[in-house]
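Worked example 2:
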Amino acid sequence: MGSRIVRWRPGAVELDLDLGPDGPPTVSRLALAGDSGAPAPAAALPIAEVHVNAEGSGVASSERLMGSAVGLRLRAVEHRSWSEAGVSHLEVSALDAVSDVLVIARWSSWPDLPVVRAETEVVAGDHAVDLRAVSSVALGGISAPGSQWWLDHEVGFAHNTWFREMAWQRRTPAELGLDDTGLRTWGLPTSRASFAVAQRGSWSTGGHLPMGMLRSRVEPRSVLWQIEHNGPWRWEIGDHGDALYVVASGPTDQGAAWMRRLEPGRRFRSVPAMLVLGGGDDDLFGALTEARRRVRRPHPDHDGLPVIVNDFMNALMGDPTAENLPPFIDAAAAAGAEVYCIDSGWYAEGERWWNELGAWRPSSRRFPEGLEAMTRRIRDRGMVPGLWLEPEVVSVGSPVAELLPPEAFFQRDGRRVVESGRLQLDLRHPSARAHLDDAVERLIADLGLGYLKFDYNMDVTQGTDVRADSPGDGALGHQQALLEWVSELMDRHPGLVIESCASGGQRMDGATLRVHPVQSTSDNQDPLMTAAIAAAAPTTVTPEQGAVWAYPDPSWSDERIAFSLASALLGRMHLAGRIDRLSPEQMRLVQEATSAYRSIRHRIPGARPFWPLGLPGWHDPVVAVGLRDADGDLLTVWRRSGPARVRVPLAAHAGAGLTVEAVFPTSLETSAQWDADAGELTLDLPEEPAARTLRLRVADAS
């Protein structure tokens, strides 16, 4: 019998399913609407890759997720499509007669976005089954049809280590070990090679971002993927059917000791993933930015974007007291802050903030008259008070470590897991949740808080085997419970803003960003390095959620202070540094920056990012990022080294008249010339590192 093709046309993308009875259902084509190119049928993969206990690969033996025996045995049962709330959905169900599991693959898309959101659900039949890996998305033929995929494409991925976040790299498949090996000569459909990027611990982005991309060098064709999970994940790219494929998943047995036993009739749903189709980086990340906005939890902070002062970075560094907070609070108000967050240490009776986590009661030594005197001062200065917590963590020496039952913590083989002198709460347990609810509600009521910063400074790679089929499955349950708890907290307090932080940006994933309105992007303390992080931030987080540090220091020149302040203007302004020690002239420069931010922030939630110089390299002498909306462009350019004359190509405006206006700094000289014929903006900057934020508008032709 022949193939049976189902064509799904939600709007901006086109997806074809092959539901032929003699093989597994496959996505035979996923393309932009109107794109006539199609991969060879041999390149298609089954709709899902599902690995179960005691079964390895169904094709060439390897460590790849691609080629699962279950996936190859799937046979289509039914499919359906529908629309709801402006979103189109497609679902196909397929049965594996051997393991007796039903696999349901789902895709969703918006009519105006070239984005597909995918997930997989597995349902056990009459027999229990042990799952070892379930793909979120499996897609073959992602390279340009007929190309030499090993040379004609680039694979993009991003390192995301502490102090060096969102450092994007590009390599050809051949450079990553995926090459022409002559298999076609012998009629072999696939090699055993793959390039995989993964995380296995509780820092979901503590090494790499859960994202990747493939870009053709010979035509404007790219695909970008994102895994939405706040715990372990994996994606791999490899060759199959003379083309490249991608498989993405949440935790796996190989990478995170994950196994889920499904009793008859029970279900497991994978973490979601997104696929974005487009041409260049600006197209891909622009569409992804819009999709991220549509799937997240609504919050008024997404539009308000208040200026936040936090006293940690390059300032009090975890040592708030009744003596040193008042001048900092007063300086924050003078600078134009609207939220003041007291960072770590407010609870510590000893000298080190690191060692006394869990009870979350203000230190009487640091605040003899009570911490409420400080939050009252914050409110009296016209700001919303905020507080730092590390809610999932209990220090081993804390009384809470003995008050809560052992089952409220991560355990392995009957012993509590200790990481860096800390215990990990398990938010699946009612005692852990009750403890945190009591602490947070008490602090909100006693201190009148409107802002919380939830930090997380450890990476637990062991998981927990308590009330779980496997350590990885216990961790997965906690990670899902964590976001449920945060959502319930904001449901009880609709105006409360909860920032996500994990040693900066070590848990900066799509699942976290669906819940938290604000996301820390880095702990980096050097303004020159922070510029590269700020420029890359919109690849990972929507601009209105991405918190970037600006930390002026009184020992710096005006240009260096402005350089640091400019890093926060096209995202969420997090002001720190020694603002309490600035001279009046330096404070006026800070006030200029906060005023400039308030003048443009209304545009940030509706704008799309673009990179006129390409995605920033960590050591690039000049980096730039822009935001584009119907009113024009906002553009920040940082010159870190090299010639003082900087040229920025703006191909989108070539041939048009363009007005260029300085947003910040206006008190320092800005020299900018626009060459319409060349489509190029030229900036003449000082010899020392300097940054400028500009407003660009197409001149009225009339």
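The first helix runs from residue 69 to 73. The chain has three domains: 5-295, 304-491+562-606, 610-698.
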